[in-house]
Amino acid sequence: MILFFGPPGSGKSVQGQLLVERNGWAWLSTGELFRKSTDPEVLARLASGELIDDALTNKVLADALGKIGNVPHIVLDGYPRNTDQAKWLIEHLESQNRRVSAIIVFQVPEEELTKRLAGRGRDEDNLDVIKRRLEIYHEQTRPVLDFFKSENMPLTIIDGVGEVAEIHERIQAAVEQLDLV
Question: Model confidence at 63, in pLDDT bands (50, 70, 90)?
């Protein structure tokens, strides 16, 4: 499994889809799974910018992982969002005879993130919600990187600014350097 890690608007979904298309892998996005949800609680949390609770997130992810066949790699976008989820993921993957092969970390300046998010046209992407989502990322999600470092997980930092194709080539080169292709 390859984790795509970065703040909202850093390009994880676009780049994840490009990577799986190019390499014949599978892509899972918790954000996409939630946006397709009809659960009123999930939809209300999305509209406010708050995170979905861990138990529900883990259940949705476990169900989605269970439906994926035997592909060489799964690119996971938008998860884990906190260290409890990171611990759950490692344990769950071990029970499924899978592991995290790489963590691709997207670095994008906050001004660029705000511009990208405001330009997507999603209901949840108004400026107040964008600001809150970035605060949550820095408070809860960013510390997950320290956890991964403490677990000696393979982290690769990617400059997430530039043309989509240019960023994609950086990511492809990184996964090739990690012998994942």
Answer: confident
Distance, C-alpha 25 to centroid of its chain: 15
Tell me the C-alpha distance between 156 and 166, whole Å: 16
Strands 2-5 and 102-107: parallel
Tell me the DSSP string of the chain.
Answer: -EEEE--TTSSHHHHHHHHHHHHT-EEEEHHHHHHT---HHHHHHHHHTPPPPHHHHHHHHHHHHHH--S-S-EEEES---SHHHHHHHHHHHHHTT----EEEEEE--HHHHHHHHHTS--TT-SHHHHHHHHHHIIIIITHHHHHHHHTT--EEEEE--S-HHHHHHHHHHHHHHTT--
**End-to-end C-alpha distance for the chain, whole angstroms:** 12
Q: So where are the chain's domains?
A: 2-177
Decide: 93 and 100 in contact? Cβ < 8 Å: yes
- Give tens-digit pLDDT for 35-60: 888 888 888 888 887 778 999 899 88
Question: How much is the pLDDT for 1?
Answer: 94
At the top level of CATH, the class of 2-177 is alpha beta
